[in-house]
Amino acid sequence: MKFLKRTHTCGQLEASDNGKKVILNGWIHKNRDHGGIHFINLRDRYGIVQVVIDQDAPDQLKKTASELKFEYCIAVSGVVRKRPAEMVNKEMKTGEIEIAAEEITILSSCETLPFMINEKAEAREDLRLKYRFLDLRTEKMQENIKLRHNVAFAAREYLNNLNFFEIETPTFIKTTPEGARDFIVPSRLYPGKAFALPQSPQIYKQLLMVSGFDKYFQIARCYRDEDARGDRQPEFTQIDIEMSFVDKEDILKLTEGMMQHIFSKTAGIELPKEFKRLTYHDSMNFYGTDKPDLRFDLAIGDITDIARESEFSVFKQAAESGGAVKFINAKECGNFSRKQITELEDVAKIYKAKGLAWIKVTETGIDGGISKFFKDKEKIIIDKTKAENGDLLLFVADTWRISCTSLGAVRNKLAADLNLVKKGKFEFVWIVDFPLFDWNEDEKKWDPAHHMFSMPQEQYLNTMEADPGPVKGDLYDLVLNGYEIASGSIRVHDPVIQKRIFNIVGFSEKEAMDKFGFLLDAFKYGPPPHGGIAPGLDRLVMLMCSENSIREVIAFPKNTAGISPLDSSPSELSEQQLKELHIKFTE
RNA sequence: GGGGGCGUAGUUCAGCUGGUUAGAACGCCUGCCUGUCACGUAGGAGGCCGCGGGUUCGAGUCCCGUCGCUCCCGCCA
Questions:
Q1: pLDDT value at position A120?
Q2: Which of A159, A24, A171 lies closest to A100 in space, CA to CA?
Q3: What is the pLDDT of residue A587?
Q4: Three-class SS state of A469
Q5: Residue A444 has pLDDT above 70, yes or no
Q6: Would you say residue A121 has pLDDT above 80?
Q7: A199 touches strand B (CB under 7 A)
Q8: Using the CB atom, is residue A443 less than 7 Å from strand B?
Q9: How far, rounded to the nearest angstrom, does the alpha carbon of residue A444 sit from its chain's CA centroid?
Q10: Which nucleotides of chain B are near protein (any atom < 7 Å from a CB)?
Q11: Do residues A241 and A534 touch, judged by C-beta distance below 8 A?
Q12: pTM of the predicted model as reported, rounded to 2 decimal places
C-alpha cells in the first residue's frame, strides 16, 4: 500500500526545522476548527505537534480537514513554520512551531470512542481494560510502558556488563507441590498427565549453576494460580538472577548496584550506596510487617512490662500469657475524634486485634480512653512512649504477632490519613535473617517458612534438629516503599544438609525424590555453592511510576477476578479440544 | 471462602430525610466563527438509574436477593 510516509515524528520538530517540508503520520489528538482557520493537534508516540490549515488553503484540503474527528489516523504533508511570537505555546515541546498543511490524507477513520483519550479524567478500569488498545494511547500509559522498557533494558545492560548470560528456561515444566497453585497444561500425547507453568524459573536456574553458567539472569514470566491483587497478577515478570561462588553479601551488593543503575539511567535518581537493613524480627517488631514502608517513622513500641503490672485486665492478661502489649505514638493526633479512632480500630480488627485502646496526652498528663487504669503509672507511660502534649497513644494487647501486625496496619493508615508519604521518595530496605521453619500448631509439626532450598545460617547447623524455631536462613527480601520488590536466598547445595531440612519438615526421601529428584540428582555431580534473587519488574516499575497497581504498568493485564476483559479469557473449550486432551469438566 | 466500597446519558459524576418532567460537564449531531491550544458560540439527539423481587399512594433514593467491578483478609515470593 502506498501512502504519505512520515519523514519525521510529531515530537521531534523544533524552531531550527523552520521551512522544512515534512510528512507526518499520527492520530488526531485535538481538533479546533475555527471556520476560517483550522488547528489540529497531531499525536504519535513521540509527541504532539500543531497542524494548521490556513484560511487560504485549497478547498480540497479544507474539505478533508473538516471531515477529521478524534483519533482518525492521518498523514499530513506540509511546511514547518515558526509560530508568531505571541502564539508560542510554552506548555508544548513543539510549541514554537507548527505545520502549515499542504495535503492531508485519512489513513483510517475512528468510530465514536468509548472514552476520551485526551481527557484527564480516566474511564473506569474495566472499560479501560476492555479497550486496552485505546487506553494504551493515553499519555500516562505511553509513559508507563516506556519506563518499563527502559527499566528492563537497564537491568539487561547492567547484568550484561557484569558478564551475566541471559538464558531462557522452559515454561512447560513439572508441577511442584510447594508454594502457590500451579497453572496446568494438560498433555495431548499422554492421557492423564499435564505440564505446569512455572511459578518461577527456580529449579532450572539452579540446574544452570550446576552446569557452570555461574552468572545467569532472565527476564522471566512467572505464573501463579492465586487470587489477584493490586500488586499481584496471575502472570507477572521477574528479573530472575542466580550466581555461583557467592555469599549473601555478594547478592545484596549486586542487587543494590542494579537498582542504582536502573534508577540513575531511567529516572536520573541517585540511590544511596548501601541500602538499610532490618532483621525479619525487627521489621515485624517495629513496623508490624515484613515489608515496611520507611518513608515515614511511626515505629511500634512495647509496654508489655508496664502492662503486666497494670490493673487493666486486657493488658495484664496479654502480658502474663506470653503475648505483648504494643503501641504507636501518633504524634499530634490528640485531636482525633472518636470516629477517627474507631476507623483505626476497624483496621486493627482486620488483622485480628480484638480492639484498639487509646490514651490522649494533655498538658496535665494522660486523659480519655483507658487512661483511668494508668493514673498511677502516668509518668512511666509518658516516659516510655516519649509522648508529648497533643499526642495520641494507640495500643494493642494480644499475641506478639497480632499486636505487631495489627498496629502495622494502623501505622500505614495513619500515614495515609496524615499525608506523611511524600511522592517521589524511594526508601529501600533489606529484610534479612528470616526464620527457616514455622511451627504448625494444627498439625504439631514444623513447616518450611519459605521453600526448602534455602541455606540455614552457619551458627544453627549443629542445633537445627534439636531446636528448629530460632534457625535463621540466608534469605533476603528487598522492600521498597512498603512493597516486596525482590526475594532471594543462598541455596542448599549440600545433599546432607538438604536431607536434614527435609527431615525436619517431615518430607520423606521418597517424596523428595519424586518431586525434586532431578534437582537432587544434579546435586550429586559437583554443584557449586550458589544463590540468587528475583526482583519483580512489575512492582518496581509500578513504584517508579507512582502507581498503585501493577495493572498500570502491564500492557495487557488480567482484572482482579483473573479474567482478561479484552479477549474474555479464560474461555470454554470445544468438545474436540477436550477429547484430544482426554479431559472432562465436571461443571 | 470472607469483609468493605462502587454500579445513574457514550464518558466522568451530581441527585438531601422517598414526591410529580432524572441533571451537569465532556463527547456526539446540525449551524456560525481567521490564531486557537480545555477555542468560542447557537441549537439538538441521547437514560430498562446493573438485574430480580419487596415495602409504599409513590422508589434512582428504603429493604432482600443477585450479577459485575474494585480494595482488603485468607491464599500468595
A1: 67
A2: A24
A3: 62
A4: coil
A5: yes
A6: no
A7: yes
A8: no
A9: 35
A10: 1, 10-13, 26-29, 32-39, 68-77
A11: yes
A12: 0.95
Distance CA A396, CA A318 (A): 10
- Strand intervals (E) in A507-561: 530-533
The question of ipTM being above 0.90 is answered as yes
Instruction: Answer whether any strand B atom is within 7 A of the Cβ of A36.
Output: yes
CA distance A275 to A277: 7
Backbone angles phi, psi at A322, to 5 degrees: 85, 5
Q: What is the DSSP letter of A173?
A: B
| C-alpha dihedral, A442 to A446 to A447 to A452, nearest 10° | -170
Q: At what angle do helices A338-350 and A400-417 cross, to 10 degrees?
A: 130
Spatial CA neighbour of A209 closest among A535, A526, A501: A526
Is the CB atom of residue A112 positioned under 7 angstroms from any atom of strand B?
A: yes
At position A384, the amino acid (one-letter code) is K
What is the maximal distance between C-alpha atoms in chain A?
93
Per the structure, the residue whose CA is closest to nucleotide B28 at C1' is A112
* Cα–Cα–Cα angle for A107, A108, A111, rounded to 5 degrees: 160
Place of cell 557484569: A162
Cβ–Cβ < 8 Å for A49, A11: yes
pLDDT at site A379:
85
Short-list A492, A504, A407, A405, CA closest to A448: A504
Q: What band does A119 get if pLDDT is binned at 50, 70 and 90?
A: low
* Positive or negative: CA dihedral A377, A382, A383, A385: positive
